[in-house]
Structures are given as structure tokens and as C-alpha cells.
Protein: Carbohydrate porin
Organism: Pseudoxanthomonas composti
Amino acid sequence: MSRSRLRPLSAALALLLAPLAHAQQVITPKLSYTGEAAAMLGGGQDSGSAYAGQALIGMDLHLDQAVGWPGATLKAYVINRHGTNLVNSSLGNSTSVQEIYGGQGTRLANLTLEQSLLDGRLVLEAGRSIANIHFLGSDLCQFFQGNSACGNPTYVFRTSSFTWWPVSSWMADAKAWVTPQLYVHVGAYQVDPSQAMDGEHGLRWSTSQATGWIVPYAIGWQSAAGARHKAMYELGGWQDNAPYRDPLVDADGTPAALSGLDYAGRHGRSGAYARFEQQVSGPDASHGLTLFGAVLKGTSGQLIEHWFAQAGLVQKGTFASRPQDDLALVVTRQQYSDDALENLRLTRAVAGGTGTPPSGQTMMELSYGFAVNSHLRIAPSLHYVMHPDQFNAPARAVDLPNAWVAGLRFDLNL
């Protein structure tokens, strides 16, 4: 067929495909599934296994292309979480080795309007969302399964009302780039514990059961777009005015474990953190060794944890024959407060036990991720839990033995 005859056919084909190309510019679809299995190898409370999963469907609707609203994006995500938690059935502590568990059921997890201004130097977002996808999150979490470090350092959930995925609430967030690499970030998130109940659907938007607000903030520096080695350094903290329970005493100042009365109600907690991620080797940002770490500490309030620290590494591109695989290691330490330890000691004594539980819990995770293709990653992992904590069962009469856990995570992104 001659070129002259092909031109009308090509023009007709381009005309037919134009709406599809436009639709791809207007909508960025989100479709993924993450599964996390875990099984006891030894120690802990009991033998057993568990599986938890999350399906996500959603979209980013780019309103500039859709209706001519420059810099605006509507983000809508729905998730379904299902399965069981090894912590509850077998491990016996309160820090999961399946970070995907929690907020079970199908719910609207995010519905926000994002507005970019000043050529992207100021980004505003408001609607229904969650603090931990905006603050203290990291892309490195995709390489781990445990909840001590991911989706955020667990300390922030134990010592504040930091809202967590997928339990959304009213929020507003602003991030300003002072320079192309230096940013300031602040947000406000409504605290509504009733939304965290399993089976909630995320469509109950009344504020009648809200208890306060948490305001996280940060100042940070990150490497320029296109840099050979990625880096991020950040200082931040949070202010929380929601009510919480004293870890030791009742309203009269007597240890509640002895009086039998309710623990005293408190208001107002705060904390601070420092963290970093630094790629130290590799030919580009997608391959090489990245080191990371964080320290978190409370600055006011009666807290169950004194401080938290984590350190780890991710090697992206492990062998010449497996350039998309990854190797990851993380170690975390949760150090409990004196009040929390005294409460555990008294509760154990009332139940007929003796002694004080260990002062902290150390968790380690080693994983290897196999990139099956560009859509599927499968990552077996090995977890070691030193001195499993007693917060889920404060009346336990004896310490649990150190635990070994085998994990398996897979991520399907379409």
C-alpha cells in the first residue's frame, strides 16, 4: 500500500486513539494488592501462622487537563483490608510483623484536593486523609514487612494520636519549598478514635465523636531531582491535644493496677524526631546501597515509651543477573518509660507473677525481594524479636521467650 493511501488510515487511527490518550493525561489510576504472611519459628507465645492483605483501587484526577483548573488534583483511594494478625494469635507482643493489618474491612481511605501553587513551590492539600502518609513515611517501607519501622516508626502511634492508614479524618496540609531542596511542612489532622474500628467505611464525616487534633511539622532537605544518589534529612515533631490514658495512676494518683479504678485521663502530648536516608553507592538512584535511621522522643505528656531508635539499609540491585532485586535490613529499639514499666510490674504482681518485664523491645528484620517482573515483587523475610513486650497482656505472669518469625510479602502493582 502506498504512503499516500496510508495517510488517511493513520489519521483516522490517531483520531480514534485521541480520547484514550487524553484520558491517560486526565486520570492516573491506582490498582494494587499487598499480602503479608507470617509464621512462628520459635519462641513467643504459641506456634501458628497468619495472613493479612490489602487491596487498593483509586485514582488521581488531574483537574488541569479535565476542567482547566491549573495545579489541582483530586485524589480518591478505596481499600479493603482482610486477614489475621500473628501478634494476636501467636507472637504475643503488641508490635506487628504484618504492617498491613489494621482498620479491617472496606473503606474510603483518602479523598483530598491537592493544589500546587507558585510553580510547585507551595503544595496545599485538604479533605479526608491520614497523617502517616504525609509525615514520617518513606518509600523504603516497601522493602519491609514489620510494623516497628513501617509504615512509620511505631513510637509515634504509641505516644500520640497520630492518625494511621487507612483510617481517614478531616485534615489540611501545606508543604513549602524554601529552595529547590529545602522544605517546610506542617499539617493538622482531626483525631476520631471511632473511625479506627473494624468495619468502618470512611463515609461517616461527622465530627461529633472527634476528640481533638494532632499537628505534625517538619523541616527537611532532600537531594535534587535527577541526582545520582538520593538523600533526605529531616527534623520534626508533633503537638497532640487529644485526650489519652495515664500509663500508671488513677485520678487520685494511686497506681490503677492496685486501686482497680480507671486510669486517669490526660490531655496534651508532644514529641520530636530526627531522621535521614542517604544513598552511598550505585550508578544511579535506582541501584545501590541506601542507609537510613531515625530517633524519636517525647517532649511532654505521660508516655508509655521513653524513646525509639531505628537503623537499617536497603541494597537495590543485588547481583548483575538480578539488577531489580533488593536486600534490606532494619533494627529497631523501643525503650519503655518508668511509669509503663511500673504499671506492668504491678499488674503482673496482682496476677500472681513476680519481677519487672524487660525495659525495652528490640526487633530485627532481614528480607530479600525478588522482582518477578515490573508489576510483581515477592519478598521472604526473617524476623527476630528480643524481649516481646507485654502491653497486649499486662497480666502475663512471666516474660515471653525471644521469638523467630518467618515472613513473606508480595506486592502486585497494576
User: Anything to note?
Assistant: The longest helix spans residues 3-26. The domain at 27-413 is CATH 2.40.160.180 (Porin). The two ends are 38 Å apart (CA to CA).
